[in-house]
Give the backbone structure.
Amino acid sequence: MGLNVPEDLARELALANRILYDHQIVDGLGHASVRHPDDPQLFLLSANRAPALVRPQDIVCYRLDGSALDPEAPRPYLERFIHSEIYRARPDVQAVVHSHSMSVIPFACAGQALRPLFHMAGFLGEGSAHFEIRDAGGDTDMLVSSPYLGQALARSLGQHSCVLMRGHGSTVVGTGLRQAIYRAIYAEANAKLQLSTQALGEPQYLSTREAQLSSDMNDGQIPRSWDLWVQRLGALDF
Amino acid sequence: MGLNVPEDLARELALANRILYDHQIVDGLGHASVRHPDDPQLFLLSANRAPALVRPQDIVCYRLDGSALDPEAPRPYLERFIHSEIYRARPDVQAVVHSHSMSVIPFACAGQALRPLFHMAGFLGEGSAHFEIRDAGGDTDMLVSSPYLGQALARSLGQHSCVLMRGHGSTVVGTGLRQAIYRAIYAEANAKLQLSTQALGEPQYLSTREAQLSSDMNDGQIPRSWDLWVQRLGALDF
Amino acid sequence: MGLNVPEDLARELALANRILYDHQIVDGLGHASVRHPDDPQLFLLSANRAPALVRPQDIVCYRLDGSALDPEAPRPYLERFIHSEIYRARPDVQAVVHSHSMSVIPFACAGQALRPLFHMAGFLGEGSAHFEIRDAGGDTDMLVSSPYLGQALARSLGQHSCVLMRGHGSTVVGTGLRQAIYRAIYAEANAKLQLSTQALGEPQYLSTREAQLSSDMNDGQIPRSWDLWVQRLGALDF
Amino acid sequence: MGLNVPEDLARELALANRILYDHQIVDGLGHASVRHPDDPQLFLLSANRAPALVRPQDIVCYRLDGSALDPEAPRPYLERFIHSEIYRARPDVQAVVHSHSMSVIPFACAGQALRPLFHMAGFLGEGSAHFEIRDAGGDTDMLVSSPYLGQALARSLGQHSCVLMRGHGSTVVGTGLRQAIYRAIYAEANAKLQLSTQALGEPQYLSTREAQLSSDMNDGQIPRSWDLWVQRLGALDF
């Protein structure tokens, strides 16, 4: 294991990466992280690898400035500042997922919010936040590749659980790793439903209270889905 | 086997759960049940597990008040009242499937009925019923988690074979387990067709008589599909 | 092998059924047939089984009145008259595929013709034909389950290569079995393209001459695809 | 290996073909080529086989007039002139992919350009080019099957990285084989996003500068995806 990387959590984070890929939330790109359980100023994230290939030994411990604890850590993701700055700005957040899932991006690019259409997406509450990187950085390569851009993203996220990133993808946060994975999967599902429902007629979204109650209830049901998601992965190479 | 659970039927119900998952009608959530063949006041339903993982030994016998016959039965689904109250209200119903399949939900959320576009969906008759949980329970967590809400759902279902549940999913019923599975699969297929057809122009639905005749005819063809569905599952872990 | 069923052709027809299933052109329903090479008054079609499960030994030889040559043949498809009456009306036709593929049905139900959007679908020529079973039989169970309805379907087909069947599905014909399979696969692909293109703007279809030239050219390329389709099936149980 | 075919590059090109198929960019048709590393007047392309079945020993070395170096080379693709004439017209191009991917064709047939909606498609720059074969050849079988038509296509491509071909498909070019494969995969992804975004509202495309910066940045990330794509193929038969 890498320096200051708890073995169990490294395994859980590797599983989380594989699950995101298995559900087509990420392809060769995208990443999931978790705050260090012993030190809120640290977080765990894979080195630069496709999520489908992440193994426990690829997990690296980073500081909130985006630097690896281990000076000999392998090449990092360019966008680790998405994670570091959200952990800095949101003490309640324990896990972050950044992805380019295909039904969410159209909302980011049409400037429309995701809103919860069914109970599984109650965590979307009153809607997703929106991040326009051009407001913060002018013309860029669209990556959140500096503390400065990460801070701008964290400001756009605010107290939401999901922020859409124009021309890029989205980021969801959770109070635990499994919850963040669940949210990435169901943000995509809800986006697919929104696309279809808007084509049919006027969507009836969950009320704010329905969304809150659903979200609280769903948190108790995540283990049932998690067991299935792990089983779907089949035999692992770690 | 659990208390008062016929072994053959437990196996059939486990297969039914796996088939629903294999056809993407359910993911980690959703459930299928069947009325007890020897006592109409009882029904069989899995304990709280993802449908893809249900084995014969997970099947539990419940009373129509939602309580398990076996006082030591494992944790039940919160929504078993969907099943219990439909069995109470509809003596003709022998099986119930509750799901969140992705093409059906948009109709539930746009307040539009499913109507039969092709013979395979003749069971939809003059259209699906609609359930607005807010009318019965105000702001809720969207789950049908009490006898009271189950009764409201059963009233909305009325004599239909399918009820759409706003902000949630749908429930179909049948006069046998295989028929209910068939209906869950083809309600989703019909919803997908309706979405596409409405985008093209004015859909020509089956007439009421065509729907009835198709539905009667299809009931004789279900074994052909069932054989395929079981074969698709491959080797089973039970 | 069944009575008067050439072994090689039975194997080819079983492969054809499996290929249609593998490409999601058929599910538990649908069927492919081929005219008997030695007697144009006969044709070969599987007995009543899901296409994915058809083996060479399931192939039965039928007369053009829909009766099996072998008095002890297993239960036939109800809709064998689709095949028999097209073979009777169209001496040029050597193979027929009937299916319910999901992108084609919306055109049948919106009363719009398929028209060739790309060279692979040149066989669609000036467009698909349309069959309204109600014109021939009033309210029915939507199945072409008699010589009378088969004749009506064959009349609607006319000299086209594809007829859409309202509330049901479609039927394509070819001058050989592989060509008919090819056409069933690319009718579905073209339908998918038409749905998307019509959402974007005004589709530019192939001209009649482009369609004819493409169709002639493609016929020489079918072996390349057929080799792939067989390979995709993997190990066979026959 | 074929005459003047470097063994390593033949293997890489066979992998590239398999990757395109695995990502559903090609089916039984479509092809990828690479310019010969030692002689810019030559290029490597498979003989006439489905991309999913291409092995290193199927790779043939062609001259820019479309003739095979080896007089005993197996049957070539009819459309090798797509490749030869682009290599002639564009000295910067080192690899070419021609495909019929299903989300791109609607844009070709509605006469709309692909434009970059997210950073992964920055290579689309200010939009795709458009090729109308009828302008060059009148009514044809839609194939670019002669040097003359290949030259017309190359003229339409101009300095773009992607040209849509009405009634047919598309062609992308790159400065290396892996980059061209990447572009074929993400042109399809971007097309899918454009279809959905246009249904939602007014798409916000990348600015020209954002597209350029994204494209340059992505080129450094291709190895991460390539590793995954090769791993997805599993065991190879070569």
Q: What stands out?
A: The first strand of chain B starts at residue 31 and ends at 35.
